[in-house]
Amino acid sequence: MSNQNGSLLRLEAVVSQLYKKEKLVADYILANPDEVVHQSITELADNVGVAESTIFRLCKRIGFDGYQGFKIALARDVVNAVENIYQEIDEADASDVLMDKVFQGHIQGLQDTLQLYDATMLDQAIKVLAGATRIDFYGTGGSGMIAQDAAHKFIRTGLLCQAFNDGHQQVMNASLLDSTCVAFGISHSGSNKDVMQALSQAKAAGAYTIGLTQFAKSPMTELCDVALYTKSRETLYRSEALTSRLIQLAVMDVLYVGVGMSRKQQTLSGLEKIREAIALKRY
After folding, report:
1. What is the per-residue pLDDT across 92-119, written as a single tens digit (0 to 9) for each?
2. pTM of this prediction exceeds 0.85
3. pLDDT in tens, 27-53
4. Which residue from 247, 258, 143, 229 is spatially nearest to 192, judged by alpha carbons?
5. Taking the CB of residue 234, how many other CB atoms lie within 10 A of it?
6. Which tens digits make up the pLDDT trace of 220-266?
7. Domain boundaries along the sequence of the chain
8. Residue 134 parent element (H or E)
């Protein structure tokens, strides 16, 4: 990844999916970040009881060129560390406290995601979307609403775009795509069967595939040509779905603005036509 920040966030996101020895390293780093930032790869390997190659492989898995690049990012994390604002929501919390905790959780989720963004992937997604003849957005449940919102935004760019939240409609429409089209899947888990089946069908038909999911290895990240990531955490009453929905909307806003700038004249023309059409709906 080109934006090499958020080392601890990346480890937290993938730790449950690591091989045994890689997990030992990740657990040690997460428990002792202040110490690891001063350790060489040899010292870390000796402390954990693994080979240096295991550490190097772990660094590559989470998007770093090697251990040195990881340590630079880790140093930033240690220096910039602040009190964890993902406070557990308590049933006795007053409404103002509740509002503060929920809002702070959203803010931190956005900041975490900003640290994980990949400029190369983002640029590629904007470029492909701007040049597509048709864009299909796929999502179910809460992600289905994000898909609907995305289509609602992108239509202003003059692009032909549709959103589908029914599994049968998704795969049916995906089968009709071609190499000039983009299939955009949205799934926080990255493993929704309906969305994955539609993306697989779209890819088989020759379409370019983009996925929006959490920062972790998943079927979606392995399948899609471009994967864009979000990062959110959950507490007792504030599930990941709350913050991830807001972050997904924000990422879609970035893509819409980027595509809009790439298609400036078409977008301005589309906006004007839509404003005129909507004006007829008002008294």
Report:
1. 788 888 888 888 888 888 888 888 788 8
2. no
3. 999 999 988 988 889 889 999 999 999
4. 143
5. 14
6. 999 999 999 888 765 544 455 677 888 999 999 999 999 999 999 99
7. 7-79, 116-279
8. strand 134-138
Burial of 217 (0-12, 13-18, 19+ CB in 10 A): middle
Least Cα distance to 212 among 244, 242, 170, 181 occurs for 244
CATH number of 7-79: 3.40.50.2300, 1.10.760.10, 1.25.40.10, 1.10.10.10? 1.10.10.10
Choose among 46, 18, 47: nearest CA to 31. Answer: 47
Q: Give the span between the Cα atoms of 41 and 48, in whole angstroms.
A: 11
Domain 116-279 has CATH 3.10.580.10: no
Strand order in the sheet with 161-164: 161-164, 134-138, 181-186, 208-214, 226-230
